[in-house]
Amino acid sequence: MQDAGHFGRAAEACFVTQSTLSAGIRELETLIGVTLVERTRRVVRFTPLGEKIADKARKVLREADELGDMARAAGRPLSGEMRMSVIPTIAPFMLPHILPRLRADYPDLKLFLREEPSAAACEGLQHGRTDCVLLALPYACGDVEIAPLFDDKLLVAFPEGETEGSREPVVAEDIDETRLLLLEDGHCLKDHALAACNRPELRGQASMLGTSLHTIVQMVDNGLGVTMLPQMAVDAGILKGTHITARPLDAERASRKIALIWRKASPRERDFRLLADVLSSMH
């Protein structure tokens, strides 16, 4: 409920009814003799003490999960349950390639996947909702262990015919900021693209259009502008069936680094490093 701010949504996230959740909180309040939740018709929020208890409960639950992690770490490598978050600009392009190999080589691994933006994935990692995160760097994700996997180049995508067949890399200074289509705030690919160009004015001029690279590709295919795509998306066939040309970006930071991250001192560090090695070998 601390995250949801609403009994109904919190109950749904906990897989119980709203009345069961409300009764459980009231029972706890009676047991310890203090009010944990302020209830009004419009809003439900934790009291300051309720916030502290909720944060402590998160820590207790995370440490309880780590007991199971310790037991699994002592057994076979990459076995048992593992919860991994993957950002949307990686998941549809990398997962179809890696999942069959993981299932074949590590049949005892039960990998539960969650696709979500970097901020939500990092928050889930810190709160113990997720065991590891597959994301793109640079991105500040707190005090974590990082296993770099590979560099993913950024390409400039534009309607065919706009450059008269030239195959030379696109110079950042030549990008028309009024036609640049990027993902909305919350997607680190937008920040990586802007950083690669090293043109501050692009942040204010570029059009932020949506949450999906596939949607932006369709807009470019209809002549509405240009965009930047990761190499992995192009290799996975995101431009198939379109009339779009993609060329390398001539810039100092024209790539993002794909990495696997996890909480420091995790009992399953050996598993995560092995998983990182497997993912890296598939590139």
TrEMBL record:
Gene3D superfamilies in the record: Periplasmic binding protein-like II, Winged helix-like DNA-binding domain superfamily/Winged helix DNA-binding domain
HTH lysR-type domain span: 1-47
Keyword Transcription: yes
Pfam family, any one: HTH_1
Entry GO CC: protein-DNA complex
GO molecular function, one term: DNA binding
Matching InterPro entries: LysR_HTH_N, LysR_subst-bd, WH-like_DNA-bd_sf, WH_DNA-bd_sf
Entry keywords, A to Z: DNA-binding, Transcription, Transcription regulation
Domain of life: Bacteria
Keyword Transcription regulation set for record: yes
Family the UniProt entry places it in: Belongs to the LysR transcriptional regulatory family.
Protein name: LysR family hydrogen peroxide-inducible transcriptional activator
Organism: Stakelama sediminis
Phylogenetic lineage: Bacteria, Pseudomonadati, Pseudomonadota, Alphaproteobacteria, Sphingomonadales
